Amino acid sequence: MKLKRWGWILWFGFLLLLDYTVPYTVLSGVNKVYGAFLFWNLFALTAVASIFVLLWQWRD
How many CB atoms lie within 10 A of CB 5? Predict the structure, then answer.
């Protein structure tokens, strides 16, 4: 159980790292809005899907 919890902590830590690094590094040279729009949509879908899976597997 603890290994699974650490996996989720690492996964959300990775998402948080992506949340800060991608806009300021990878997308800093993109002058068009669609690059950021695509990233934030994919990021939001990934985060929501991860939370859905986490809550779906939640047991007391």
Answer: 9
